[in-house]
Structure formats: C-alpha cells, structure tokens
Design a protein that fits this description.
By secondary structure, the chain is an all-alpha fold. The protein has 2 domains: 61 residues, Arc Repressor Mutant, subunit A; 156 residues, Tetracycline Repressor, domain 2. It has 10 helices and no strands. Helix 1 crosses helix 2, helix 1 crosses helix 6 and helix 4 packs parallel to helix 7. It is elongated, with a radius of gyration of 20 Å. The C terminus is likely disordered.
Length: 221
C-alpha cells in the first residue's frame, strides 16, 4: 500500500483545518443571528464567540452578508432534501401537498434557528442593496425547485400554476410558524404540530380552490 507523500498529507491536514474553521464560523454565526439578529450581530461578535481573529473571518467570507448567504443556501438545501425525502414516500399526487407542508413544518420545528434566520432574511429582501439581490436569487431558486416538485398537485387545475402554489406553501408555512414560535416557544408549537399542519394545508387548499393563490405570486418570497 502506497503512503501519501509528506507534502500531500500536510495539504490534507491544512484543508481539513480550513474546513473546520469555516464550519465553526458558520455554526457560530447561525447561532448569533438567531439569538441576536442579523442586523445587530457584528463580524466582531462572530469571531469573538468563535475564538478566532477578525482577519480569519475575512479569509473565508467577504462580509457579514456573505456568510448570511451561505447559511441561507445551506438551510434551504437541507429543507429541500427533507422535503424531497418526504415526498418520495407518497403514493399519489393528491398527497404531495400534505407531504410538502408537513416536511417544512417538521424541518422548522427541528431547526428553529433556520426559521428565524429565513424570517430575518426575507426582511432584507425589501432593501435595494446588492446583498438583497443575491439573497433574492437564492430564494427564487428554491421556489423554482419547490414549484417543480409540487407541480403534480395542481397539474389539472387551470386557475393555479405551480410557482404560485410554491410561493403560497413557503409563505404560509414559515409565516405562521414564525409567529407561533415567537409567542409560544418551539416546545409549545411542537405540541400543536398536527393542528398547525392541518391549518396550513386547509389554507393553501382554499386558495387553490378559489383560484386566488395566484395573488401570492406578487410577493415572490
């Protein structure tokens, strides 16, 4: 068995150390943004809690907005994976809507820090700054993906398109859960998980039936 050259082994150790440092920064930032808020948490707060120098932060991220975008991409990626796994277990298009909503509720109850992060980022999307444009592109990509996977649920509905449905699912789920988590706490919401899933599903179905789900497209969140 051939052993790696010393310089190759050293490079591997360096790569692992860099990956560990970057992950540390991301985990600390995610925690701080949930507890302190993305507007009030500073780069200095992140590096201090991570026990790293400020210069180290800028080796991995150009700005606070850059680390927010990476966290958004990671969170939406995990959410998409959980949603796809849940939807792969349903046996008919009629169950797709329920599976998608349930998966999103379960994900946010398991990761309330992502729920609050996404809520804060949506506020940033209202701002006319370059960072907001980049974040909007990340959200838009997620909605396009969600539209593709829920399309079978509205394939025969003439008054509703999949993109509008995806927007409604995302808005209703995160919006309702954010308010309940803020006022009742995560544990209290977990105890009411089933009733909240039903409420969201009924609301989205009512929009589909009335055809007014198309108005959700104006928000594009």
């Amino acid at each position: 068995m051939m052993m790696p050259a010393p310089e190759e082994a050293s490079l591997s150790r360096v790569a692992r150390r860099k990956a560990k440092t970057k992950r540390r920064l991301l985990e600390v930032a995610r925690r701080l943004f949930s507890e302190k808020g993305i507007y009030w948490a500073k780069v200095e707060d992140i590096t201090e809690l991570a026990d790293l120098g400020k210069g180290t932060f800028y080796k991995y991220f150009d700005s606070k907005e850059a680390i927010i975008q990476v966290l958004l991409e990671e969170g939406l990626g995990e959410l998409a994976a959980e949603t796809e796994a849940a939807m792969s277990r349903v046996s008919s298009p009629a169950k797709i809507l329920s599976a998608a909503i349930t998966a999103r509720v379960d994900f946010f109850l398991l990761h309330p820090d992502y729920l609050l992060l996404f809520h804060q980022v949506r506020g940033m999307l209202q701002l006319q700054v370059d960072a907001a444009k980049s974040l909007l592109e990340v959200y838009d990509a997620h909605l396009r993906w969600l539209a593709r996977v829920v399309h079978p649920a509205v394939e025969r509905a003439e008054t509703v398109n999949a993109r509008d449905l995806a927007t409604a699912i995302a808005a209703y789920t995160s919006g309702l859960l954010t308010y309940h988590v803020l006022f009742e706490g995560t544990e209290g919401v977990r105890r009411r998980r089933d009733s909240l899933v039903r409420a969201i599903e009924q609301s989205v179905k009512a929009l589909i039936k009335s055809g007014s789900v198309s108005s959700m497209a104006l928000k594009r969140r």
